[in-house]
Amino acid sequence: MSPAMLRESGEDYLLSIWGGAGLIGASGHGPPKAKPSDPARLSATASVFCHAGHEEDDIANQVSERLPSALGTIVVVDAGMHWDNPTAYGIEQVKKTAAELVKLIVEAKKNTSS
Predict the structure, then answer these.
(1) Residues in Cβ contact with 25 at an 8 Å cutoff, skipping those fewer than 6 apart
(2) Could you give the 3-state DSSP secondary structure of residue 55?
(3) How far is residue 77 from each of residues 10, 48, 88, measured CA to CA in Å?
(4) For a tag on the chain, would you pick the N or C end, based on fewer CB atoms within 10 A?
């Protein structure tokens, strides 16, 4: 997929994901909150801003909801990817790789905190 950079900002994180012709297409912000049905578990509802003509909002939303829930802290995501004429399969692969990136970050952060 694309390169990524995770930066700590105090207890919070800024994650940049880019690929192809790098740019900033969408930004997501996901603060964690307790689930109403189970206050011991966290969830996040992302707020996403997508620039006109860009389609990175799905990835910004996906990552901005999953990482804060798993890490228990605010995560801001900036996603920027551009390939000319991507196929549906290619887009799915980018989304799967973004989900895999989330898993790797969560595993790495859990290993460093234990």
Answers:
(1) 50, 51, 54, 55, 56, 57, 79, 80, 81, 82
(2) coil
(3) 16, 9, 23
(4) C
Q: Which DSSP category does 94 fall into?
A: H
pLDDT for position 114: 62
Q: How many CA atoms lie within 13 A of 19 on its CB side?
A: 19
Q: Is domain 4-109 in CATH 3.30.230, yes or no?
A: yes
Amino acid identity, position 99 = A
The contacts of residue 37 (CB under 8 Å, 6+ apart) are none
How many residues does this entry show for the chain? 114
Q: Average of pLDDT values for 5-34?
A: 92
CA-to-CA distance for 69 and 109, rounded, in angstroms?
Answer: 13
Q: What is the pLDDT of residue 55?
A: 83
pLDDT at 3 > cutoff 90: no
* pLDDT tens figures, 56-95: 999 999 999 999 999 999 999 999 988 889 899 998 998 9
